[in-house]
């Protein structure tokens, strides 16, 4: 990652901005209208004929919905200091964030809940999340545990999810959209790895339409089949890179039998 970051910083800021504009499928005219500048100015910035001010870099990044991590890279490429901090989750500055996460996780019990970072590595979880680490190959439980790898690997939940094709398609679709949004090479590597996993029966595509509004994850535990729905939440208006990339994934019972079973279990 360090080498990739250094290569990114060496690229001109205009080239990086053009890449983000094209990734968002905007024309120079579209972007110019959004930022309230001339198309000529956007063109000059992108081809290096005009050096954008710090404020212009940030305005363009805001309208291009560039992640905070990459906004710092744009500033560095433009010759400016980064403005978004990147504090460790375990630093004193993040105490309020850690407390908030812990309250959310504990309040969700007895149902599982996780906090993952940008790369889907689990950074926090509640006691009920132990449901997902039972009978998992030890090498998959070495820190950092990756939530998507844990879900799809055949030696993890991939061997216990009875509707794996549907869950696999949903997970890969989510990851593919995230890659399109961030252009993160680590996420691309993860996507390629997950796509290469064997699927029982050779099935790699989801079944046809179903009457369900949301597809639950159907997970075997002993002689039971649990049915779980999932939601993902993020922090609003973050100003720190680490906080902006955190995702809280909460699992809810999709039926009364699963709810009662989890209440007894945890």
Automatic annotation (TrEMBL):
<dbReference type="InterPro" id="IPR010982">
    <property type="entry name" value="Lambda_DNA-bd_dom_sf"/>
</dbReference>
<feature type="domain" description="HTH cro/C1-type">
    <location>
        <begin position="17"/>
        <end position="71"/>
    </location>
</feature>
<dbReference type="InterPro" id="IPR001387">
    <property type="entry name" value="Cro/C1-type_HTH"/>
</dbReference>
<dbReference type="Pfam" id="PF17765">
    <property type="entry name" value="MLTR_LBD"/>
</dbReference>
<protein>
    <submittedName>
        <fullName>Helix-turn-helix transcriptional regulator</fullName>
    </submittedName>
</protein>
<dbReference type="InterPro" id="IPR041413">
    <property type="entry name" value="MLTR_LBD"/>
</dbReference>
<dbReference type="Pfam" id="PF13560">
    <property type="entry name" value="HTH_31"/>
</dbReference>
């Amino acid at each position: 990652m360090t080498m990739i970051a250094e290569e990114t910083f060496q690229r001109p800021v205009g080239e990086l901005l053009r890449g983000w504009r094209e990734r968002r499928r905007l024309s120079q005219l579209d972007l110019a209208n959004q930022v309230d500048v001339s198309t000529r100015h956007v063109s000059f910035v992108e081809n290096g004929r005009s050096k954008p001010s710090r404020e212009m870099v940030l305005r363009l990044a805001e309208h291009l919905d560039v992640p905070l991590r990459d906004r710092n890279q744009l500033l560095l490429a433009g010759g400016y200091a980064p403005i978004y901090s990147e504090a460790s989750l375990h630093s004193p500055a993040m105490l309020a964030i850690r407390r908030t996460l812990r309250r959310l996780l504990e309040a969700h019990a007895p149902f599982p809940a996780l906090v993952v970072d940008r790369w889907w590595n689990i950074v926090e979880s509640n006691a009920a999340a132990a449901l997902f680490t039972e009978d998992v190959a030890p090498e998959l439980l070495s820190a950092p545990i990756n939530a998507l790898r844990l879900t799809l690997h055949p030696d993890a939940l991939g061997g216990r999810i009875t509707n794996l094709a549907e869950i696999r398609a949903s997970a890969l679709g989510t990851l593919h959209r995230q890659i399109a949004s961030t252009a993160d090479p680590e996420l691309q590597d993860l996507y390629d790895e997950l796509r290469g996993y064997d699927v029982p029966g050779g099935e790699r595509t989801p079944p046809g339409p179903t009457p369900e509004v949301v597809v639950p994850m159907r997970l075997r535990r002993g002689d039971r089949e649990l049915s779980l729905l999932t939601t993902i939440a993020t922090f609003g208006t973050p100003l720190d890179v680490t906080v902006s990339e955190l995702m809280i994934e909460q699992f809810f019972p999709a039926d009364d039998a699963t709810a009662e079973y989890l209440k007894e279990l945890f």
